[in-house]
Specification:
The protein contains 4 helices and no strands. The protein is mainly α and 126 residues long.
Amino acid sequence: MRVQKLFLVIGLVGVVLLTAYLFFAFDYSLVICYFIAVNVVTLVLYALDKCSALTNGKFIRIPERTLHVLALVGGSLGALVGQFVFRHKVRKTSFLIVYYLIVVLQALVVWFVFFGYRLDMWPWST
């Protein structure tokens, strides 16, 4: 339980610090900086977890829940890249089901933010 919270806190602090750096150094929009930061941190944690898996747990593994939380708060693209580049967590069905549910949830949130509850904008409406 402590390891999970430790990596979650490290990941979220990394997101905040990288967002602040990108915002002040490159003068991008805060939203753009946040999404870049959360995806980079998620990708790095996937890489660290893959390295730990290859060394048979010599290093501390990153809990799956931490990877899911980072995907949920916006790092789903970094998670997808990490899954395919490092071939990590691609055979674990339970992990993939939760990940794809997160992606569907994010797609619905984006849809409702941009189109609201207007039923005439749904793809299946005529």
